[in-house]
Design brief:
The structure holds two protein chains of two kinds. By secondary structure, chain A is mainly α. Chain A contains eight helices and one strand. Chain B folds into two domains: 102 residues, RNA polymerase sigma factor, region 2, helix turn helix motif (Rna Polymerase Sigma Factor, Chain: A); 63 residues, Winged helix-like DNA-binding domain superfamily/Winged helix DNA-binding domain (Arc Repressor Mutant, subunit A). Helix content of chain B is 64%, strand content 2%. Classes of the chains: A mainly alpha, B mainly alpha. Chains A and B meet through helix 1, strand 1, helix 2, helix 3 and helix 4 of A and helix 2, helix 3, helix 4, strand 1 and helix 6 of B.
Chain lengths: 171, 181
């Protein structure tokens, strides 16, 4: 039996070996992974992340990918990405101060917003209606017009009756 | 433009519109780059990539900015933290989006790879190598990374990588009685 030991390159040696099968699948928190990527984790915590990455090729590839991106100059993002993202937060998202609101301030609280809107719309409708009425001459002119129509129609009727009887036509 | 590390985090988590807009402008290039890289194996269209990137921002402001409130500035810079969060969110978005039955062409090759088991391998006993040594050997040999890349990832200098690599292999050779070429 030959006892000659076959020399191996470092790569051949590693590839001829297998880990003992223990897999460390504990999830790494975002803060831990970020600290690990910056080399700022305490030794014990860093060793735990090392163990997870050593046993999990997917997480290992992810860490490598993040490291590469963080080291490179970034291309400009599409404009629509920023536009859509900025629209996610509106001015009303800003927190109201944590003090008791005043009488008028309470009307603008979230729960009263619908009532305020309805009142505003009703007021606007009323203003429009009044404006239209005034532009049309208002009540006084309307009455005067109505009276004139009545006088004219009465005069016409009277003339018709006079003509009727003057012609000697009696029905 | 305001840099990410200059963003007023308190104003941001209070929902200040101006601070949010500044944050988005500063973060968009990083989130865009991370999401594109994470989803590259899935060969998505531009609209789908944009949706995934938008989803990252949605998560950041959701539930009263809960994610951002969980960020600890004493542990890492916000760019690094944001990159980690963005990648996780992009992968989660992809998982939710995927159909139950996927075409095999849509699955990245890494997910399909299986270990070649027909060759019996010697088992490395637990404790023979440190986790750091194991990780380094995996990066150098399983991932085919070079010393510079490993040094950058582990935030150590290249000489430390070479030294750690050498010590690890010495331990393996001594344990398994295998000579070098």
């Amino acid at each position: 039996m030959s006892t000659e030991r076959i020399p191996m390159t470092d790569q051949e040696l590693w590839r001829s070996l297998a880990m003992d099968g223990r897999a460390v699948s504990d999830p790494i928190s975002d803060n831990d992974l970020a600290a690990w990527l910056e080399g700022r984790l305490a030794p014990a915590a860093a060793a735990r992340v090392d163990a997870v990455l050593a046993s999990d090729p997917v997480q290992r590839a992810a860490a490598m990918e993040l490291s590469e991106i963080l080291a490179m100059p970034l291309p400009v993002a599409p404009v629509r990405l920023a536009v859509r993202a900025q629209a996610l937060v509106g001015f009303e998202a800003e927190r109201m101060p944590a003090t008791r609101p005043g009488f008028f301030a309470s009307w603008f609280a979230t729960g009263r917003r619908q009532a305020v809107r309805a009142a505003a719309m009703g007021t606007a409708a009323a203003i429009l209606a009044v404006s239209g009425f005034v532009m049309g001459g208002g009540l006084g002119e309307s009455y005067a017009q109505q009276k004139q129509i009545t006088v004219v129609s009465n005069t016409d009727t009277s003339n018709e009756l006079t003509d009727l009887f003057s012609d000697g036509n009696v029905i | 433009m305001t840099e990410l590390n200059e963003i007023d985090l308190r104003g941001l988590t209070a929902g200040n519109k101006r601070v949010w807009d500044q944050f988005v402008a500063a973060a968009a290039p990083l989130i865009n780059a991370v999401v594109r890289r994470a989803l590259a194996p899935y060969r998505l269209g531009e609209d789908d990539v944009m949706d995934a990137a938008q989803d990252v921002f949605v998560r950041l402001c959701a539930s009263d900015f809960r994610l951002i409130k969980g960020y600890d500035p004493s542990r890492a810079g916000i760019s690094t933290w944001l990159a980690v969060v963005a990648r996780s969110a992009a992968i989660d978005h992809m998982r939710r989006r995927r159909q139950v039955a996927d075409s095999i062409d849509d699955v990245p090759e890494a997910a399909l790879a299986i270990e070649d088991r027909h060759v019996e391998k010697l088992k490395i006993p637990q404790g023979l190598l440190t986790d750091r040594q194991t990780l380094m050997l995996r990066l150098l040999y399983d991932e085919d990374r070079d010393v510079t890349e490993v040094a950058e990832l582990l935030k150590i200098d290249a000489q430390t990588v070479r030294s750690t690599h050498h010590k690890a292999l010495l331990r393996l050779r001594e344990h398994f009685k295998i000579d070098s070429t």
